[in-house]
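General statements about sequence and structure are easier to judge against a single worked case. For one protein, we set the task of working out the structure tokens from the amino acid sequence alone. The sequence in question and its structure tokens are set out directly beneath this paragraph.
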Amino acid sequence: MPLAGIALASAALTLGALELLGRHFLTPILVRYSDNQALRLQLANPKDLGVVSLYTPHHYYLYTTRPSYRSADGEVRHNTMGCRAEEVLIPKPAGVYRLLVLGGSTTYSTLVRPNKATFTYELERLLNAWSASAGMQRAFEVLNCGVPGFTSAENLARYIFALSDYRADLLVVQQGLNDVLPRSLPHVSRDYREFSKSWEGFDPGREDWFLLRLVRAARSRFGDSVWTQGISYVVRHPYWDPARSGAGPANFSRNSPAIFEANTRYLVRLAAADGARVLLLTEHLVTDPADRPTDWLPEGGIRAVLEHNRVLQRVGREEGTLFFDLQAALCACGVLMPDGRHLSEEGETAKAQAIFSYLVHAFGAGRWTPS
């Protein structure tokens, strides 16, 4: 056998041995090697696609949460619409009052793994207990259709093309944080084209070869990839790199929140045309720099989020919708938000209780009737 053939056969046997050894014995070492929670899930069990691969491409709004997703432990579940909720009937049965909740990762409840610990599950429980005690003869359904990373543009498109089929009685909208990111760029078009790019068919969670997982672990340590930037790496231009994107605090004054406001107004009016009431929720985040664990927004981003919150309040007033200021109602502190913007399980419970109390008060004031 020529030397080249011997070398090739030897390399194949070596790689095969490493694959077998790694698959059966070294995966726990690889999991410990990674400090990325999403990557740890993927490495520990390739059949559990992990947080990074909760998504699938979409032909209109870039991407969406994967329909009918189930994590290996069953704690994270999506229904057939990709919502973090149980299946419900379409059309809606008589006697059911349906709340549809739209937003980004703060709605999806990224830091909370069990579905049952998210604020929407708890809110549904509180509303049904209230209905039973008051003899309303109403069953409440609360559907969490938040998608991490979604801006107001994607929320609007998803409502039009998919979620309007739910025929919600109350549309709950929490958005504004992700719209800050395109505003940090030198120029922003109406469709956020400078911020968004196509998925291009990339699916990071299909293969289960140990050696390929080893390569991904190295990439997560040594450079930008889907494993370090998450879904943003796949569907966004590199706003996180000021040298490449031109992102900077001066751009916030150049780019007003007009696009965010217009998208929110369109969503409110479409929902109203569908016969739904609308509840606008502000984003909730840590504002004290000393209490923020990381600088996860560009300089000036916190002020821009609070500006969007004020836009929501004004839109709510002018469009005649319900409005609730979560930023004011909950502790804006790292105790509830370990990463500065996503709630812990304790925070999710507090959020559900705050929204429930607001709705009960609005009911007593005659501003909202679950009929």
Observations:
- Residues 119 and 349 are 6 Å apart (CA to CA).
- The first strand starts at residue 55 and ends at 57.
- The first helix runs from residue 3 to 33.
